[in-house]
Amino acid sequence: MKKIFDDEQFFTGYQELRRKEQNSNDLIIDPALYSLLPDLTDKTVLDLGCGDGKHCVYFLDCGAKSVVGIDISEKMLQIAQTQNANDAIRYIKMSMTDIAELQETFDLIYSNMAFHYIEDFTAFAKTLFDVLNPSGFLLFAQEHPVITATIDGKGYFNRSPSGKKLSYVFSDYGVPGKRVTRWFVDGVEKYHRRISDILNALIIAGFVIERIEEPLPEKWVIEKYPAYADERIKPTFLIVKAHKG
Ligand SMILES: C[S@@+](CC[C@H](N)C(=O)[O-])C[C@H]1O[C@@H](n2cnc3c(N)ncnc32)[C@H](O)[C@@H]1O
User: Fold this and answer.
1) Which of 82, 117, 123, 236 would you call most buried, defined as having the most Cβ atoms within 10 angstroms of its Cβ?
2) For residue 191, is it within any domain?
């Protein structure tokens, strides 16, 4: 995958998005993920695609003993190291596909919005299983396959003559593989697979699926930011919690 998060134009756009009060991470994904966290008291955590490290600090606040944050982006790790440094957090620049090289195991493997950048999820699921302690948990959020499906990377809304969004059109659901789309810049690469492909890869690796979520905004979010009513038409995020069988 191209290191898109190190592209200057992309990085600036992404940072602006995250700074907005109205962003899906703060309003939808993080609350849903955090509600599924296991007890972290004295546990070790691996955060894959940790970005600016804000979740790593949160895990310490929840009682974790230590956290390793992995990211391939130099720029994201620079922010993590300046804004979210802590003696109990180690930030490492590497691809999450290489985590076996750490030669460590963890009580929780966590990832927020990064697994759709992985090409071979079947092989990756096996790596995740090997890096998890016997009683450990895997918890991740990624783009929903309804969103990754369409070949050019984006579906669209059908609208009424007055412009009201009526339904969401996507295609190519059964065609797995690379999608190249625009997100701040052209050429952002991600990978589509069906929900069944994701879950079966985990099951074949040995995981027991504990929970699936397609998180929706709370009522107050839609009242304050009406655009989030779109989430009632189509899902945007998929969350999976699993443990070792
Ligand atoms: C959408 S951001 C999410 C960042 C962070 N998890 C959060 O919730 O704020 C995705 C992150 O995944 C990282 N990433 C993408 N592919 C990766 C890979 N193969 N290995 C490690 N990090 C990766 C990117 O550099 C970026 O920081």
Assistant:
1) 117
2) no
